[in-house]
């Protein structure tokens, strides 16, 4: 706790809740605070990576942007877990669909996160790590989705380091292995949680499908993303 504030987070000890919702976009963090939290305060503006703490149905909850890619969420989640006493981080973001039974607007929950990143090399493991979500958070998320009648798929997702991939066959190969969708952060979050003995979950909304060409119009994204946000807020501990 003595390492606060950090070079990337201006919060002081005690200003961040035990559970943090982490969208990639800091403006989405601001949207969540303004529309879902009560009595919220801003604890971070460093690098414009906004962070807020407030209450949701009486529970203290924080929300903070995590940026794009594993290196970014790797820094923010490590500091939250290690220096601010955070126990659970729930990533909420958009994803591109792979699987045929995944549709635009569906919520996808990452039970595991495959990756083409070299993030795990730092651990010098004698094999390949399979980064997985915390089961208690995953189970609660599925239960909340069912109660709210929200269409949800649970399975393996891909955390890719490349948004524009020179390998034009890469998506086909991941799809052939049953990967549901692609995003860019969950595997790094899951690895940090595993190493530090913490909890993590990634909840995604399918904003477009890489095979059907379906895409969510900009004006509909905010409405669809609200379902994902509500699930995450309901399971905050």
From TrEMBL:
<comment type="similarity">
    <text>Belongs to the PNP/UDP phosphorylase family.</text>
</comment>
<keyword id="KW-0328">Glycosyltransferase</keyword>
<feature type="binding site" description="in other chain">
    <location>
        <begin position="207"/>
        <end position="208"/>
    </location>
    <ligand>
        <name>a purine D-ribonucleoside</name>
    </ligand>
</feature>
<dbReference type="InterPro" id="IPR000845">
    <property type="entry name" value="Nucleoside_phosphorylase_d"/>
</dbReference>
<protein>
    <recommendedName>
        <fullName>Purine nucleoside phosphorylase DeoD-type</fullName>
        <ecNumber>2.4.2.1</ecNumber>
    </recommendedName>
</protein>
<keyword id="KW-0808">Transferase</keyword>
<feature type="binding site" description="in other chain">
    <location>
        <position position="24"/>
    </location>
    <ligand>
        <name>phosphate</name>
    </ligand>
</feature>
<feature type="binding site">
    <location>
        <position position="8"/>
    </location>
    <ligand>
        <name>a purine D-ribonucleoside</name>
    </ligand>
</feature>
<comment type="function">
    <text>Catalyzes the reversible phosphorolytic breakdown of the N-glycosidic bond in the beta-(deoxy)ribonucleoside molecules, with the formation of the corresponding free purine bases and pentose-1-phosphate.</text>
</comment>
<dbReference type="Pfam" id="PF01048">
    <property type="entry name" value="PNP_UDP_1"/>
</dbReference>
<feature type="binding site" description="in other chain">
    <location>
        <begin position="91"/>
        <end position="94"/>
    </location>
    <ligand>
        <name>phosphate</name>
    </ligand>
</feature>
<dbReference type="GO" id="GO:0004850">
    <property type="term" value="F:uridine phosphorylase activity"/>
</dbReference>
<dbReference type="GO" id="GO:0042278">
    <property type="term" value="P:purine nucleoside metabolic process"/>
</dbReference>
<feature type="binding site" description="in other chain">
    <location>
        <position position="28"/>
    </location>
    <ligand>
        <name>phosphate</name>
    </ligand>
</feature>
<feature type="binding site" description="in other chain">
    <location>
        <begin position="183"/>
        <end position="185"/>
    </location>
    <ligand>
        <name>a purine D-ribonucleoside</name>
    </ligand>
</feature>
<dbReference type="InterPro" id="IPR018016">
    <property type="entry name" value="Nucleoside_phosphorylase_CS"/>
</dbReference>
<dbReference type="GO" id="GO:0006218">
    <property type="term" value="P:uridine catabolic process"/>
</dbReference>
<comment type="subunit">
    <text>Homohexamer; trimer of homodimers.</text>
</comment>
<dbReference type="GO" id="GO:0004731">
    <property type="term" value="F:purine-nucleoside phosphorylase activity"/>
</dbReference>
<dbReference type="InterPro" id="IPR004402">
    <property type="entry name" value="DeoD-type"/>
</dbReference>
<feature type="binding site">
    <location>
        <position position="47"/>
    </location>
    <ligand>
        <name>phosphate</name>
    </ligand>
</feature>
<dbReference type="GO" id="GO:0005829">
    <property type="term" value="C:cytosol"/>
</dbReference>
<dbReference type="InterPro" id="IPR035994">
    <property type="entry name" value="Nucleoside_phosphorylase_sf"/>
</dbReference>
<feature type="domain" description="Nucleoside phosphorylase">
    <location>
        <begin position="19"/>
        <end position="222"/>
    </location>
</feature>
<feature type="active site" description="Proton donor">
    <location>
        <position position="208"/>
    </location>
</feature>
<feature type="site" description="Important for catalytic activity">
    <location>
        <position position="221"/>
    </location>
</feature>
């Amino acid at each position: 706790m003595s390492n606060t504030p950090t070079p990337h987070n201006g919060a002081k000890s005690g200003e961040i809740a035990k559970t943090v919702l982490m969208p990639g976009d800091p403006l989405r963090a601001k949207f969540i605070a303004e529309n879902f939290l009560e009595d919220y305060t801003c604890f971070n503006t460093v690098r414009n990576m906004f962070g807020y703490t407030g209450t949701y149905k009486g529970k203290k909850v924080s929300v903070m942007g995590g940026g794009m890619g594993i290196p970014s969420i790797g820094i923010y989640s490590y500091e939250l877990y290690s220096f601010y006493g955070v126990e659970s981080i729930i990533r909420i973001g958009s994803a591109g669909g792979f699987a045929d039974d995944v549709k635009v607007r569906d919520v996808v929950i990452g039970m595991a996160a495959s990756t083409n990143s070299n993030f795990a090399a730092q651990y010098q493991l004698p094999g390949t790590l399979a980064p997985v979500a915390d089961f208690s958070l995953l189970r609660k998320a599925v239960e909340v989705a069912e109660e709210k009648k929200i269409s949800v798929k649970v399975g393996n997702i891909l955390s890719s380091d490349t948004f524009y991939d020179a390998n034009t066959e890469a998506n086909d190969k991941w799809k052939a292995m049953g990967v549901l969708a692609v995003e860019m952060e969950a595997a790094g979050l899951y690895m940090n949680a595993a190493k530090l003995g913490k909890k993590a979950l990634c909840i995604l909304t399918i904003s477009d499908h890489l095979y059907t060409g379906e895409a969510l119009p900009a004006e509909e994204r905010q409405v669809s993303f609200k379902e994902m946000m509500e699930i995450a807020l309901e399971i905050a501990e």
